[in-house]
Specification:
Layout lengths: L8 E6 L6 H11 L3 E4 H7 L3 E3 L4 E3 L1 H11 L3 E5 L3 H4 L7 E6 L2 H10 L4 H13 L1 H10 L3 E5 L5 H12 L10 H7 L3 H4 L3
Parallel strand pairs: 1-5, 1-6, 2-5, 6-7
Antiparallel strand pairs: 3-4
Helix pairs in contact: 1-8, 5-6
Bound molecules: adenosine-5'-diphosphate (ADP) and magnesium ion.
Magnesium ion binds next to helix 1.
Length: 190
C-alpha cells in the first residue's frame, strides 16, 4: 500500500527527551502534509504544566480531554507524554524513537541538564520505559525506530516505511550494551 492511499492517519511520535522526536515530526508533517500537534505546546498554552525547578508536572486527565478535541484525520502528534494522554482508538501508528544512551548524554550535556536529570532520562532509555508504557497503551500499534547512527533523512525514510506497514519494528537492548561495557554507573543515579 502506498502512503498516499491511506485515508485517516494519526501518527504519534514519542520517546525520551533528545531522541529526535521534534525533528522527525516536523519532517513528517512537511513531507506528508500532516497537521503537527505538539503535546507540550498544548499543555503549556492551556496552563496545564506546573513548573517545578527541574521537572514539569502535568494534569494528564485535562490534557487528555483537550487532545481528544484536537486530533484530526491527518496529523502527527509529538511528545514524550503521548502514552499517558492519548487514547488508542484515535491513533493509527505510534513510533517510539530509540537512541543510544551514549548519544543521549551528549545531547543532555548540550542542553545543560543536571547530572541527575541526565541520568534519569538516560536510564529510562536504557530500560525502555517509554516503549513499555506505549505498548501498554497502544498495543499492536507501536513500532520502534533506532535513530542511533542514522541521519535525519534515513530516519524520515524509515518512518514512512513503518507507517505504510512495509517495515517492522526494530528491537534493541541498551542494557546489554551498557552492562557489557561496564558502564552502568555512568547512567544510573546512585
Ligand atoms: N536522526 C538524527 N540523527 C542525528 N541527530 C538528530 C537526528 N534527529 C534529531 N537529531 C538531533 O538531536 C537533537 C535532539 O533532537 P530533537 O528533535 O530536539 O529531539 P526531541 O524532540 O526528542 O527532544 C537535536 O540536536 C537534533 O538536531
Ligand atoms: Mg523535543
Amino acid at each position: 500500500m502506498f502512503i498516499s492511499q491511506i485515508q485517516g492517519m494519526s501518527i504519534v511520535i514519542t520517546g525520551n527527551p533528545g531522541v529526535g522526536k521534534h525533528t522527525l515530526a516536523k519532517g513528517l508533517s512537511e513531507k506528508m502534509k500532516l497537521e503537527l500537534i505538539d503535546i507540550n505546546q498544548i499543555a503549556k498554552n492551556s496552563g496545564l504544566f506546573e513548573e517545578n525547578n527541574e521537572s514539569n508536572d502535568v494534569d494528564a486527565e485535562k490534557l487528555q480531554e483537550i487532545l481528544k478535541q484536537k486530533i484530526s484525520n491527518r496529523c502527527v502528534i509529538v511528545g514524550h507524554l503521548a502514552p499517558y494522554v492519548l487514547d488508542k482508538d484515535k491513533i493509527s501508528t505510534v513510533i517510539v524513537l530509540r537512541r543510544s544512551p551514549y548519544d543521549l548524554i551528549k545531547i543532555y550535556d548540550e542542553r545543560g541538564y543536571s547530572d541527575k536529570k541526565s541520568k534519569e532520562n538516560a536510564s529510562s532509555e536504557i530500560l525502555g520505559i517509554t516503549t513499555y508504557d506505549a505498548k501498554n497503551q497502544f498495543e499492536e500499534k507501536v513500532v520502534q525506530i533506532n535513530v542511533s547512527g542514522k541521519n535525519i533523512k534515513d530516519v524520515l525514510n524509515k518512518a514512512e516505511l513503518v507507517i505504510s506497514g512495509t517495515r517492522d519494528s526494530e528491537e534493541m537492548d541498551w542494557l546489554e550494551l551498557v552492562t557489557k561495557n561496564n558502564d552502568l554507573q555512568k547512567f544510573f543515579v546512585d
